[in-house]
Structure prediction request, 308 residues.
Amino acid sequence: MHYTSPEEDSARWWDFPFREGDIVVSTRSKSGTTWLQAVCLLLVLQTPDLPDRLGALSPWLDWLVQPRDEVFAQLDAQTHRRVVKTHTPLDGLPLDERATFVVVGRHPLDMAVSLYHQSANIDRARVAELTGDLRAARPRARPPVRDWLLDWIEWDGDPRAPGNLDTLPGVVLHLSDAWARRRAPNVVLVHFDDLVHDLDGAMRRLAGRLGVAVDPARWPYLVRAAGFEHMRRHARRFVPDTLGVLQDPAAFFRHGVPGDGRRAAGATGTALYESRMAALAPEDLRAWLHLNRGAAGPMPGRGGWSPA
Prediction:
């Protein structure tokens, strides 16, 4: 499947030269992409002091603001195990057996509220300058968050059409595809809330799936460096932006606490969301996404673990 938006093109993956051990972090926007990139880099490099900014170490391959060949050259020059970012669902990627694909799930309402606030932090003129698409510079009117969220819940268009993946049907499309592949040896699902509530445990499980052995003496420092508050305090090193697209790097790490979306939606909005999700997603995926852990047993895979 070919996915596009004014700022992204999944076709840039089609002739990407994979290497043995590559790690691809695939998420919807504001679902924990940067957090998982940081965790993977800390595990791979095994130092709490990353040698460069996260956006340089783990570039976003689909993003049109940086020429494709420049991104390829940047990754080709790396001698360590590579971590690459994408917002493309797995059915739009070449699922090379040499790579591990880590898909992050977050409660869609929390993701949507984060996306709403992130929109105000984008320098649209800078995006237009980098992409050559002057439409990106047009100001975007924003209703109050609750009104915007209710519209987001009710939207019922085609998520595969250009620019529609960050809708509720787009979120479900991305996660449903990964969920269907969850028993594949090189597909790993991670839940955002597990990073919030048990970062140490989530990192240990992911290290097992990636086949990374970490020196016990270094482990506490790696976990501390992966903490949300640590990344926010060092935002300029951890934000994915290296080209000046964000107006305020610290605002990129806005909150990170589960439950924002349900509070913003209120009882009526949450009930509407639950009705929509019942029509869009299978029951076992909804149970995992909403943290009803009893819905599915352990899943086999590389290292013997995947959250369920």
